[in-house]
Design a protein that fits this description.
By secondary structure, the protein is α/β, with parallel strands linked by helices. The chain is 52% helix and 13% strand. It has a 4-stranded mixed β-sheet with strand order 1-2-4-3.
């Protein structure tokens, strides 16, 4: 994961002064690598750097079997199963606790998207507080920017996080009743 993002960040030199990639999609199983593994911050730091560099506005997490995702007739649809059916129990429990849900049945994809945006918003607020503390302590702004692992949230472009499912066109037609 970090390898792919690292290559994306380093290839900016080949793409000119202002590369733009409004949306980027990852297999949903990689969500944990980006957002949840706070003990290993390198993937999140690399991702935020790539998002800033490429002006990424939307992150899409895709559920689906690899063969379907690589199929020429792939169609992206709203997930047909609930988060509880598709995500690891540890993720579901953490989100249910954060949203103060009784059990895990009430967790929806919309809540998941909101949860992930909240994680980024919390990082932004943490950055602002830390910057204020460093400024009061007399640290120069440039020194703080270099020391901060999350970059400068005022330059983040991520506005939307979406969960979708990849299916073949024939499966999508059946689901749509066609």
């Amino acid at each position: 994961m970090a390898n792919v993002l690292g290559q994306l960040v380093h290839s900016v030199d080949l793409l000119g002064d202002s590369p733009s990639l409004s949306r980027i999609a990852f297999q949903a199983k990689l969500r944990y690598d980006i957002f949840d593994d706070m003990h290993e911050i390198a993937p999140l730091k690399t991702f935020l750097s790539a998002a800033e560099t490429y002006k990424i506005e939307e992150i899409i997490f895709v559920f689906g079997i690899d063969s379907v995702c690589q199929s020429p007739d792939v169609v992206l649809i709203s997930p047909t199963k609930t988060p509880k059916d598709l995500l690891p129990l540890s993720q579901i429990e953490a989100m249910s606790m954060d949203w103060k849900l009784i059990g895990t049945h009430g967790l929806t994809w919309e809540m998941m998207e909101k949860y992930d945006r909240k994680l980024l918003e919390d990082l932004k607020n943490e950055y602002i507080l830390r910057k204020e503390e460093m400024t009061r302590a007399g640290v120069e702004s440039g020194d703080f920017e270099e020391d901060s692992w999350v970059g400068n949230p005022s330059t983040w472009t991520i506005k939307k996080i979406t969960y979708i499912q990849a299916v073949s066109a024939s499966v999508a037609q059946i689901a749509a009743g066609i």
